[in-house]
Amino acid sequence: MLCLVAYLVLLLQFLVHVTAYGTNYENYEPSRFFYACQLQLGLEATFCSPENVSCPCLNPNYLALMAGCIETNGGAHDDALTKASIKSGIKDCTYYGVTLNSSWYDIAINDYHNNAKSASEIANFNMSDIIDVPFIVNHTASYPYQESYRRFYANYQGSLYYGAAILGFWLIVLLVGGFINWSKILFPQTTKKMTSPLVNYWRKHVTVPATFRKKKAQDQPFLKVFGFLIPSRFESLILALFYGITILCNALNMEGIDNDPLFNSRYAAENRYVADRSGITATMFMPLIFLFAGRNNFLQWLTRWNYSTFLAFHRHTSRVMVILVIIHSFAFTYAVYDEYAEDAAESYFYWGIVGTIAGGLILVQAILFLRRNWYELFLFLHVILAALWVLGTWLHLVDMGYIQMVVPAIAIWVADRFARILRLFFFGFPKADVYLLADETLKVVIPKPSYWKSIPGGHAFIHFLKPTYFWQSHPFTFTDGIEDKNAITLYCKVKGGITHSLYKMLVAAPGRQCKVRVAVEGPYGEATPAKYADTAVFVAGGNGIPGIYSEIIDIAKHTTHSEKQSLKLYWVIREWRSLFWFYEELVNLNKTNIQTTIYVTRPDVITCIEDFSQRFTATTTTTKTTTINSGSLKLESNTDASFEENENEKQETLGKDMAVKEVVHDDLSSDEKSDVTLIINSIKNELSHITFLEGRPDFEKIVPQEIHESNGSVTFVTCGHPAMVDELRYCCAHNVDNKERKRVDFFEQIQVWA
């Protein structure tokens, strides 16, 4: 909360100091009479030589004609438009080095009324010859000029309104989302009763399920390198409305007039309208894009949506923004095609090109395939290209009056980075104890300051302060220490990158443990409303257990025996060794009222099971074959791989130095089998408060069973392999409208960010 306050204070200070920078926005629509008359007069009569650009401001006949044109076309009935035209005349002449008196219009209109002549009244009138009397403009021909400028300037002002409409849409979405989610916290008993057919239909078909059948946490493969993530159905509905509103706001009121005198054709006029509209609306929701992507996004607190949801919104809104800017660039290039070389030499033009190219490159380098396989490179390039985008946008708009739209985006970005640094120093830079457990998991025990409060189910970003990768940070869920209450424990699956480097260091270290200085940024996230449910069912898969354990153990601590709330924990693991790295926490469950069930989907795999012999001193093991065998990796086919960590789906390719021979029960001798049986029995005896089942959980049976056994509402919370999370989501959605009319909620802790 302290970091959030600091973030908001810095944001406001930055906005106050920087907003005044650059040219202020000016609404030209009230001045359209002046500029329309200026265009028309230049085509109907000549008062000055073309070389003398300041002459019109000094020529009383021209000023009289201008005043007459303004009055005739509406100024006589609209004082505001007349005043705007007077100011435009003064501003226009100032540009040419002439100071025009504020009373120029009154003098000029009197001159027009007393001395103006039509073409027929001027002897030997020729449009190209300079005349020395005020000229009566052809009023019947004024409409195209006036209408052309009206539509041109109205599009500028209208673009602001349409951009505001897009932002207004997001404001409504965020407020409604916040109201719904906070009502679950503030009015839990009322929420439990919301099981009417209409509410259940909406939740079953919109808010709970994946967009298409099951896949939400899982990525959708497409042509190998063009895989993508599909948001939930509710998120997809929001995004579909966003796309629709954006298209609508960039299509309305874009009609030009035939033979447009300002742009010479209707097509050219409409092209310019498209260029201006797309550029303005894209710039207006630029701050929102940076806010969605920030770790310290206060909207997460407002809506109680997780970071993954906001990243989904960030990806889609940023794509739309870049596409709009590309449309703006192409349309504007066409509009200035005849003067391209001259315009391209202007700083606003080439910095616009820089920003557009940076945005296009971001679209390419941010595809899921690149994010998954080269995340650190992606992140580095993403930040550099985003900085170029901001720089290009700033220098493109600084003299156009739209810089105030860019300032909030920069302020949000700077404030987020500042808050992140503040969090790092707030935690300190302690030395952590790092252990390699069961050849698959790093256990990181980090001393924490007494004032650092954990968030049940939350996560933190950790930096391992080594010269080769200190700048990298990775998110992990954590638990409070079992033995040391002034420490937090993180569990990191050994994959590639940093965890691979730490693995190699720990393999060579005595006892497979060492101390590493770390920096911790966090905590982030919020606990789910599961604590308010009559039955809270937590389901974890593989390394998804820490966050799940953290939240359910916190609920158990604050639940008295007199309360009727039922707490249940399911953990799905692939093999017995997965228990080893989380064993102390499992033992600690004996002190709670949590009903725990562990599914072992490959109980025949006993790789590294001899590690348990160090705990069970009465057991003598001879299973030497289960130790690391460098260079040989035997991977059995895994029929249940969709529910656990699949070795072939790791984000990074591991080297041979991490190869672990998979040992199955049938490969052992009779003595070794006996030792393994003793170890497994010892595990079950010490963890007698836990039910062990072999095989894969059937959520199609578990979910309705939990609903039936509950005394009331049921909340399912899950984190694990994406396929497992999607399966549970699917089953929960199908049981929202259960016959017993019990409230069923589903929450996922899994954060699919890359």
TrEMBL record:
InterPro entries: FAD-bd_8, FAD-bd_FR_type, Fe3_Rdtase_TM_dom, Fe_red_NAD-bd_6, Ferric/Cupric_Reductase, FNR_nucleotide-bd, Riboflavin_synthase-like_b-brl
Name of this protein: ferric-chelate reductase (NADPH)
UniProt keyword Cytoplasm, yes or no: no
One Pfam family cited in the UniProt record for this chain: NAD_binding_6
One example of a Gene Ontology biological process annotation: iron ion transport
EC number: 1.16.1.9
Topological category with respect to the lipid bilayer: Multi-pass membrane protein
Signal sequence residues: 1-20
Listed GO MF terms: ferric-chelate reductase (NADPH) activity
Membrane-spanning parts: 160-182, 222-245, 280-299, 320-337, 349-370, 377-395
Annotated FAD-binding FR-type domain residues: 424-530
Family named by the database record: Belongs to the ferric reductase (FRE) family.
Catalytic activity: 2 a Fe(II)-siderophore + NADP(+) + H(+) = 2 a Fe(III)-siderophore + NADPH
Annotated spans, Disordered: 637-656
Alphabetical keyword list: Cell membrane, Electron transport, FAD, Flavoprotein, Glycoprotein, Ion transport, Membrane, Oxidoreductase, Signal, Transmembrane, Transmembrane helix, Transport
Organism, scientific name: Lodderomyces elongisporus (strain ATCC 11503 / CBS 2605 / JCM 1781 / NBRC 1676 / NRRL YB-4239) (Yeast)
